[in-house]
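[job 0412] stage=complex_fold ligand=zinc ion status=START
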Amino acid sequence: MSAPQYAVGLDLGGTAIKYGICSAKGEILHESQCPTQADQPAEVILNDLLTAAREAIDIAQKNGTAISAIGMGTPGSVNVESGTLMGNTPNFKLWKNVKIKPWLESRLNLPVWIDNDANMMAFGEARYGAGDGASNVACITLGTGIGGGIVIDNKLFRGSNYAGSELGHMSIRYDGIRCRCGGIGCWEMYASATAMIENYNRLKPNEKIESTITIFERYNAGEAEATQVIDEEIQIVSIGVANMLNIFNPQVIIIGGGVSEAGDWFVAAIAEKALPLAMASATANVRIVRARLGNKAGLLGAAAFALSRL
Ligand SMILES: [Zn+2]
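[job 0412] stage=complex_fold status=DONE, emitting structure tokens
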């Protein structure tokens, strides 16, 4: 029998469920999305996921494509072996302690593999995106918080209780701000989009901007306050990147998330500052690059992960 070639990837986000038919080579044969009913009971969300998966399977069947597995990313901590969402997730009211894998498997009669959405994005980028298939990759997303995932020897690193690779909660200041996680001086308290916006609004208290896009626009126009915020951002992100280089010595560090959409120059500026901060042996041949798959990384990674577990 030939190797399984196609899986359905599902990416459960706060506003939409994205789904698609993905090949083992990272092609998307078909994709669609439906709204996430984030305030509804878990059963409602499960049924929407089931409908999405069935629709994709039907389309694949009509095209003579055999689906071998379903992969799915969800916000929150996931016990990957049992396919259970552990605890809860901030943007969903009742999406907590859900046994996702057995529920979907019994209805779809296909193997289902679930993981945290940041891990799925990292896996997608490592395999098919900016990682170009490298076996050791660290993916950092600069968004509302700082998230990401670590791929070691082609496998996602999750820690002993699926709580590993919380990159945003590495401390960069022992005397820093207290974080909601309980830690002090967490990276995301200083370098997330949220932190950038707070920093900017503190410098210009008479206006309340709401997006880092505004800061980058004003930076490009040469505004002093925006320049200060962006220069600090580059500095602070580079310290975290240097830590990652020293700890993991990856072949590729991928920087994604909304803030990275500022452009390749932004990632290049981070790389230029980070490389001299890390040990020379940890920086030889490393590539520090911008994420390439955008919002398709999650479903591609989910499909790839499901195929990798068959
Ligand atoms: Zn923290």
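The CA atoms of residues 30 and 59 lie 8 Å apart.
[job 0412] exit 0
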